[in-house]
Design a protein that fits this description.
heterodimer; A: alpha/beta; 9-stranded mixed β-sheet; B: mainly alpha; two-stranded antiparallel ribbon; 14 helices; 1% strand
Chain lengths: 437, 289
């Protein structure tokens, strides 16, 4: 009896080890699997999972439609939320386990290392003129990186000033079109005990948006692009003036006193609850403001950031214009099919997503019925139409380490820890951008 | 059954799966990280071997030194604030109070809740606009003390330590409680017969007899302080202006925000060495008698 017990015990244990090893080795590699039934399987990763994110609803529908129309090419999608998504993509590419297709943040430093190291498939040779013609104006140039193309655009996002008209009326303030009017509005709003503008500076990039647009209004887009290439130009009178204005606004109490402990999500929550009169953000916040759960629905206007009396920038110079898109893994087993799906997905999501309010279109939309769009989306689209130049998010343009330094410096500027002069001296230490602007 | 456990083959069968798993997910990654720490590498493509340059840079980097200082402060707070509270609670709880089981459970609840939930909970308590803490201060007439606890340089560090200390008080209390309960009733009875007061009994009998478990608690709390990550990451993300940064949050930021895998790995190796040295130190301190 004892011997039998002993034998069966060790047998069970051995079986346990063998099966656990087997389980490890058969783990999915994330990439394309060997297909036995002749079907091609493509994997897709994206970050569209948010509640008020219209793409989160559209994307599965588009994938499903594709799957039913293409029984031989089946797409399997996995969605992960924001910051976790970035980490997931970074680690999986480093480990060589990236999916066939994945979402990449609007061309720039996020994708740059992967493109340079040859992890992303170049798709220039697959692109026909027909496809290029269906894209919006300027889009074929926007996705061109040193003569090569790696992605197709989906949406465009631009940053604008969101103003809560109800709170402005309550304070008797005028909606600002110039810097002095902005300062004036801040004073009136403060006097009425309304927080003039909200910033979620815990995440640091919402504050960066403010400095970046102020610098663009002060120095003009052309000068900013010069400075990206030659950082010593950050230390010039225009940028010192911009930093001074940023600090002046902070000292005038333009921003919520709790900004350093407020995250981006909390900032949206505060604005949507009517706890701030202004917010400078990109049009991906439109859906949340227009959501039935928002207290400010219908009370918000989107306007271009005020111009400066002494500034070189105009309000046709736009902060944004980054075209986010999907990229194909260099190691995919089915490049042709992946590109085919990429074209379908980009155009479908780009146009349908525009109609659903997810972002401004990167594709021609003349034939589309835009009557269902909210006034926020329509005004943002109108602002984009006036554009003479675009500069995308600075933290995407600067090399990763410099982007971090830039954001940290702005936080210090907001807190009054550095003078505008010191700020500009430190900005001049950043590395030049690796992108061709 | 005894013969089963004295058989070397059987022992191997029992130990091997865990050993393999341990090697696979702990030992090998440590060696791989140590190798990465010698590279100048952005996580993709090919790294460049630069020897110990990352370590040299690390000990010159004020951000790293500041994060180490913070983790040492935190270890100090754990040892001198958290453990004494746990010990007092454990001793009270072990002395046959009414509702022993109830209190044991209540104090242990924070340990069971996910740290992210705890962090969310406390960030709401600390919130400058509607937080419980400020509301409380205002309601007792101390509104001048109300402030943005996590958003200011001089309060952020202390404010982000408190939730972690609070979270693990129950854990250490339970360890010490088990230790206190295992002290023989005969000894305690003898002390009572001799007329020793409760405090005297605790000081002269309970605590010396609980030494092994106190050592375990000490090791756990110091190492826990050195590798604390999730709570700080969710509460403040290391900010404002690096005031709450600890080595693990800095390692994360270095690797995932600035793409410096080599430098980040050097920080991670430092954390491992720091924990190892402290464990050895504590063990040898307690071995003296």
């Amino acid at each position: 009896m004892k011997a039998l017990l002993k034998k069966s015990a060790s047998l069970i244990l051995t079986l346990g080890i063998v099966s656990s090893l087997a389980a490890c080795s058969s783990g999915s590699s994330g990439g394309a699997q060997g297909e036995s039934d002749g079907k091609i399987k493509l994997t897709l990763w994206d970050q569209s999972v948010g509640n008020t994110d219209p793409s989160a609803k559209l994307l599965p529908e588009i994938v499903e439609k594709w799957n039913s129309e293409h029984p031989d090419i089946q797409v399997e999608r996995t969605g992960t939320t924001g910051e976790q998504y970035k980490t997931k993509v970074k680690t999986s590419i480093a480990a060589g386990e990236a999916p066939d297709l994945f979402y990449g943040m609007g061309g720039g430093s996020f994708m740059q290392p992967y493109i340079k190291s040859g992890n992303v498939l170049e798709i220039s040779s697959y692109l026909t003129d027909d496809i290029k013609e269906r894209m919006g104006p300027g889009m074929a140039e926007a996705i061109n990186m040193d003569g090569k193309i790696y992605t197709l655009p989906v949406y465009t996002h631009i940053a604008n000033l969101y103003v809560n008209t109800e709170l402005f009326e309550q304070a008797g303030a005028k909606i600002p079109t110039t810097y002095n009017e902005l300062l004036d509005a801040v004073t009136k709003l403060k006097a009425a005990e309304i927080t003039p503008a909200v910033i979620g500076e815990k995440d640091r990039w919402p504050g960066m948006y403010w400095y970046d647009i102020i610098a663009m209004r002060q120095a003009g887009n052309a000068a900013v692009m010069e400075a990206f290439k030659d950082p010593s130009k950050w230390d010039s009178p225009d940028f010192v003036a911009a930093a001074t204005k940023m600090q002046q606004l902070a000292q005038a109490g333009a921003f919520n006193s709790s900004m350093f402990s407020m995250s981006y999500d909390e900032m949206l929550g505060a604005f949507n609850a009517g706890n701030g009169a202004m917010m400078f953000q990109a049009n991906w916040v439109n859906a949340g403001i227009g959501d039935p759960s928002s207290a400010v629905k219908g009370k918000v206007k989107v306007i271009p950031f005020p111009v400066f009396e002494d500034g070189k920038g105009t309000n046709n110079e736009i902060f944004g214009g980054a075209a986010d898109g999907f990229y194909i893994n260099q190691n995919t087993k089915h490049p042709k099919e992946a590109v085919e799906f990429l074209m379908y997905l980009s155009e479908q999501l780009g146009t349908q997503g525009f109609l659903a309010g997810a972002g401004l279109p990167s594709w021609k939309t003349d034939a589309l019925d835009t009557s269902s769009l909210s006034s926020l989306d329509l005004s943002a689209a109108d602002i984009m139409k006036t554009a003479t130049s675009f500069i995308a998010w600075w933290d995407n343009i600067l090399p990763a380490e410099s982007a971090e330094a830039h954001k940290n410096l702005i936080a210090q500027l907001l807190a009054g820890d550095v003078t505008p002069e010191e700020f500009c001296k430190q900005m001049a230490q950043l590395k030049p951008t690796e992108l061709s602007l | 059954m005894n013969s089963v456990f004295s058989n070397k083959g059987t022992i191997a069968v029992f130990v091997l799966p865990t050993l393999l798993l341990f090697c696979g997910i702990v030992l090998i990654p440590i060696f791989v990280s140590s190798y990465y720490s010698l590279l100048d590498w952005n996580g993709v493509g090919r790294g460049k071997f630069i020897g110990l340059d990352n370590y040299v840079e690390m000990f010159k980097d004020t951000r790293v030194l500041n994060s180490i200082k913070n983790s040492l402060l935190f270890a100090g707070a754990s040892v001198f604030i958290q453990l004494p509270i746990s010990l007092v609670l454990a001793l009270i709880l072990a002395s046959n109070v009414k509702g022993e089981g109830f209190y044991r459970t209540v104090y242990f609840i924070p340990v069971l809740i996910s740290t992210v939930v705890i962090a969310q909970l406390w960030s709401k308590i600390y919130n400058a606009d509607y937080g419980l803490l400020n509301v409380l201060l205002q309601s007792i007439g101390l509104s001048s003390l109300a402030q943005d606890w996590l958003g200011q340089k001089d309060t952020a560090l202390a404010a982000s330590f408190i939730p972690t200390l609070w979270q693990y008080v129950g854990y250490h209390m339970l360890l010490m409680y088990a230790g206190a309960k295992s002290v023989s009733q005969d000894v305690l009875e003898a002390a009572r017969m001799d007329g020793a007061s409760r405090i005297r009994t605790a000081w002269s009998i309970m605590i010396p007899l609980m030494k092994p478990i106190l050592k375990v608690s000490l090791v756990f709390s110091v190492i826990g302080a050195f590798k604390v990550f999730d709570l700080i990451y969710v509460l403040t993300g290391g900010g404002p202006f690096y005031t709450t940064e600890v080595p693990s949050t800095l390692m994360y930021a270095t690797i995932f925000d600035t793409f410096r895998y080599g430098y980040g790995s050097a920080i991670s190796v430092f954390i491992i060495v720091e924990c190892l040295v402290c464990t050895i130190l504590i063990n040898s301190l307690f071995k003296t008698e």
